[in-house]
Amino acid sequence: MKRRLIYGVVVVVLILNLTIGARLYLSSAQAAEKDSAYPNLELFSVVMEKIRKDYVDGKDVTYQELVYGALKGMVNTLDPHSEFLDPEKYKELQNDTQGQFGGLGIVVSLKDEFLTVVAPMEDTPGFKAGILTGDRIMKIDGKSTEKMGLPDAVKNLRGDPGTEVTITIQRPSTGTTKELKLTRAVINVDMAKDINGKKQFPIGENKIGYVRLTSFGEKTADELEAAVKKLKSQDMQALILDLRGNPGGLLDQAVEVCEKFLSRGQLVVSTEGRSSIQKYPAKGRGDELKGMPMVVLVNAGSASAAEIVAGCLQDVKRAVLLGEKTFGKGSVQSIVPLQNNAALRLTTAKYYTPSHKVIHEHGITPDIEVAITDEEERALYLKRSPGGLDTLDQKDRDTLEKLRDPQFDRAMDVLKGIMLFTQRAPSLEYKRKTEKVAAASPEESLKR
Fold this sequence. Notes:
There is one protein chain. By secondary structure, the protein is of the alpha+beta class. It has helices at residues 2-34, 37-54, 63-76, 87-97, 125-128, 150-157, 220-232, 251-259, 305-315, 374-384, 394-402, 406-439, 442-447, and strands spanning 83-85, 100-103, 106-111, 114-120, 136-140, 143-144, 164-171, 176-183, 185-188, 192-193, 208-213, 238-242, 267-272, 277-281, 294-298, 320-323, 331-337, 343-352, 368-369. A hairpin with a 4-residue loop joins strand 7 and strand 8. Helix 8 runs parallel beside helix 9.
């Protein structure tokens, strides 16, 4: 009886093993087929030929159009920042990094599934129209952006200078929605500006310098160096580096900017991909300011390369970070040139600060958080824009002119405090030493 029971149990176990094994084999075989290139490429070819043969307007569709369309769709499914660039879009990207392009001057990204303004670039149609960081673009020329995708949205926003485009903006903080008719323009952007939006870089009685970086293009580090040189010639004692509303740009420029304030060899940022880790140490001549006190201003419009600079200078305790939490765009897009002047912009890694804090989708939290209202932010942008306040009626202009920049004011207070303490530190040290001598015995005092 016991033997039959044992045999029965063994048979049941064998049957279960065979069943589970068969299912696992079928599952792994199906998974292998899903991840195999050749069957899927064959499927792609079959569909493409079917379109060419039977699609009602197939005679008007070229193989290149079908392949380009497929590549765009494939890459767009990866993340909001990866993109297949046809020759026209690749040329636009090259123009962007060179500091000149045509369009509205609105840097956008997908956030919470909405087409969201990262930052309006200064002296541009979008900036002058009062568009703010965080605004959602709901429609472009009457078409909903809900399923448009980031590449198509950018393409629809851009166009030849002088042409018009109508966009519908929703501001989440107030719930208001408004329609704006804007005229596209050729946009030339200065990367470094002074407090007055110019390139003169004056310094006040307090000897605190100010430089604002608008973006990280090919000229950013050079323009910053020229600005710092002018300020140092005026006996600058502290510096405010303003990265508010800076949408980012080139990684190498972010590294070069940091190098101007760090000792040689100091880690600036690292990138980590699937199979590689790349570290970027400072290779410059060393800290050009010799440890001079610094405050870096940031807000929700500070993104990408701006976050690299902010995160680095905060981590190594080279500067005090002040303002609001940054945007949180910390992924690396590698540009891979392809045939026919096309290219692939592919997310290949994520940025990490020197202390290995991830930037992407987290942002950088300031050391000192200072909020700014929508009204104050609007006043700030209008004051920065040449003739911006002139677009308002007298009542609104008077109101906005009276508004202060609380983040800038707080940065000035912080630096004044640091400078005052630094000046008094030697005398305090001397006082401590003399008090120590006075408290000692007469014999010890004579020995001293």
